[in-house]
From TrEMBL:
It comes from Halopseudomonas formosensis. The chain crosses the membrane at residues 62-80, 87-108, 114-135, 147-165. InterPro entries: Gly_transporter. It comes from the Bacteria. Residues 4-78, 90-162 form the Glycine transporter domain. Keywords: Cell membrane, Membrane, Transmembrane, Transmembrane helix. The keyword Cell membrane applies. The keyword Membrane applies. The lineage of its organism: Bacteria, Pseudomonadati, Pseudomonadota, Gammaproteobacteria, Pseudomonadales. This is Trimeric intracellular cation channel family protein. It is found in: Cell membrane. Belongs to the UPF0126 family. It is a multi-pass membrane protein.
């Protein structure tokens, strides 16, 4: 089940990357590249940081074909994308949770400590979006909008806590998804966010 959610998630992320590229008037190569980076960048950065080689997508060429194709397809259906906004929000939230859990599992299999496992989960969950926004020359949305990175952190903590209590794996996944989806969608609905740090030296000058 997690694999199917992952495939849906990377497709949705690739399409969101293509839309971001379109807002910057990129060409076909740019659209495909941004789609690929958005969908698979988090896992790539995770594998590089953990020394987990070969990088996952190099062993599964289907992921490359799927993400680039989804990005290019987005160009053909872009005029209809606004009608699917609500669906994309749900798919994005599911992708965040799936990426986080997968990232945690990769680090666990490599024998890393809990803190590193959590960071690996978060890196997988949010870094694709960070790379997308950097390449599109904008401040990463995951660091300034409604709760997003925080949701990844909380999901990782819950997943590892239930795992340490020997909760059934399927039940653990269900609880993590319900918890993560609830918080993420509530954050979107009511614009929940963390306190913002705004540094302007002139505010405190005499």
């Amino acid at each position: 089940m997690l694999l199917y959610i992952y495939l849906i998630a990377i497709t949705a992320e690739a399409m969101s990357g293509a839309l971001a590229a379109g807002r910057r008037n990129m060409d076909l190569f740019g659209v495909g590249f941004i789609a690929f980076i958005t969908a698979l960048g988090g896992g790539t950065v995770r594998d590089m940081l953990l020394g987990n080689y070969p990088v996952t997508w190099t062993q599964h060429p289907m992921y490359i074909h799927l993400t680039i194709s989804a990005g290019l397809l987005t160009m053909l259906v872009a005029r209809y994308m606004h009608r699917l906004h609500a669906i994309f929000l749900v798919l994005d939230a599911m992708g965040l949770i799936a990426f986080t859990v997968i990232g945690c599992n990769v680090a666990l299999e490599l024998g890393y400590t809990t803190t590193v496992v959590i960071m690996a989960g978060m890196t997988t969950g949010i870094f694709g979006g960070i790379l997308r926004d950097i390449l599109c020359n904008r401040t990463p949305m995951v660091l300034r909008k409604e709760l997003y990175a925080s949701v990844s952190l909380l999901v990782a903590i819950l997943y590892l806590t239930l795992r340490s209590l020997d909760v059934n794996h399927d039940l653990n996944l269900l609880a993590s998804f319900v918890f993560g989806l609830t918080i993420r969608l509530a954050a979107i609905r009511w614009s929940w966010s963390l306190p913002v740090f705004s540094y302007a030296p002139g505010r405190w000058s005499d």
